[in-house]
């Protein structure tokens, strides 16, 4: 974590005409999208829009189904990447990951397990003093040091979500990718989570936030991409994208969008 913006002109991902088909279903449809390193961006879409599929393409779990000369699928300027090597550039946080911690794993172990890309620690894992120190720094930075010895199964969803952010930060990734990170958080947990995310964004870490909820888009995020039926529908500056017409069209319901203190809200009617 560093002070100041790390946003550079170097593209982190560069997609052109990327389509992904699975079980005969088109999950991504000719997606063209460039995200620079350190950029803070939201990808917004309704249920089933293809948001998780897009994340899988960003993390190189999915590759284009029909490569061709018109298809560009680059990560940091390269066509091929080992998914394992991505860890130092991208930290992934998803609400679903929390449910996979079913064993008695302490808050400290949740963060430490990021070094091993595992769910908790196992006997084969060799934890070094450097890893311990980094974990302490992260727990401190995220203001969750009091959770270090608490089992994940006995803490709230909001607290767990912040520990998962800590897990994603162990390799000091330039960009944090968050998949629907506020699912099941109550108002208080939501408030604390946003505060944490803003702190990370202000430290210069890039954010790719995937969500269907407008208020998840923290004020630091300036660019919003709308996705529906696996395709990018709009991509631009937040104020220009988050309009009644665009959001109403995206969710296929009449809405009024309003802005308050840098946050956006949509009300259906
Ligand atoms: N492996 C797969 N094989 C076939 N269809 C899939 C596969 N994965 C996802 N789908 C379908 O593709 C569509 C897009 O799924 P995806 O999970 O990317 O959407 P999403 O925007 O993340 O949705 P949600 O907000 O509900 O999580 C959905 O209709 C889903 O059922």
The end-to-end span amounts to: 42 Å
Classify the secondary structure makeup into a structural class. Answer: alpha/beta
Number of strands: 11
Quick check: average pLDDT?
A: 90
The H-and-E topology, N to C, reads as EEEHEEHHHHEHEEEHHEE
Ligands, ions, cofactors: adenosine-5'-triphosphate
Give a short synopsis of this structure.
The protein has eight helices and eleven strands.
Write the layout of secondary structure elements.
Blueprint: E1 11-22, E2 25-36, E3 40-44, H1 51-58, E4 72-75, E5 90-94, H2 95-99, H3 107-112, H4 129-141, H5 157-169, E6 175-179, H6 187-202, E7 206-211, E8 223-228, E9 231-237, H7 238-241, H8 244-251, E10 255-260, E11 263-268
Parallel strand pairs: 3-7, 3-8, 5-6, 6-7
Antiparallel strand pairs: 1-2, 1-4, 8-9, 10-11
Bound molecules: adenosine-5'-triphosphate.
Adenosine-5'-triphosphate binds at residues 22-23, 25, 27, 45, 47-53, 212.
Keywords: ATP-binding, Nucleotide-binding
Organism: Methanoculleus caldifontis
Pfam family, one: ABC_tran
């Amino acid at each position: 974590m560093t002070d100041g913006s790390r946003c550079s002109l170097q593209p982190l991902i560069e997609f052109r005409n990327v389509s992904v088909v699975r079980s005969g279903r088109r999950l991504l449809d000719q997606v063209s999208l460039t995200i620079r390193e350190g950029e803070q961006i939201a990808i917004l879409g309704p249920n089933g829009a293809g948001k998780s599929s897009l994340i899988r393409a960003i993390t190189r779990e999915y590759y284009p189904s029909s490569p061709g000369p018109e298809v560009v699928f680059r990560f940091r300027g390269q066509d091929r990447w080992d998914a394992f090597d991505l860890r130092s550039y991208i930290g992934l946080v998803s609400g679903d990951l929390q449910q996979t911690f079913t064993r008695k794993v302490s808050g400290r172990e949740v963060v430490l397990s990021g070094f091993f890309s595992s769910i908790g620690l196992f006997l084969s894992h060799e934890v070094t003093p450097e890893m311990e120190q980094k974990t302490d720094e992260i727990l401190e930075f995220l203001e969750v040091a009091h959770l270090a010895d608490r089992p994940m199964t006995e803490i709230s969803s909001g607290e767990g979500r912040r520990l998962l952010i800590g897990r994603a930060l162990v390799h000091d990734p330039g960009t944090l990718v968050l998949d629907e990170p506020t699912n099941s958080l109550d108002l208080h947990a939501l408030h604390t989570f946003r505060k944490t995310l803003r702190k990370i964004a202000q430290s210069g870490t890039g954010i790719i936030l995937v969500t269907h909820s407008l208020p998840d888009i923290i004020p630091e995020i300036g660019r919003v991409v709308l996705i529906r039926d696996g395709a990018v529908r709009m991509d631009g500056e937040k104020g220009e994208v988050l309009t009644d017409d665009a959001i109403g069209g995206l969710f296929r319901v009449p809405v009024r969008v309003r802005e308050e203190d840098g946050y956006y809200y949509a009300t259906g009617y």
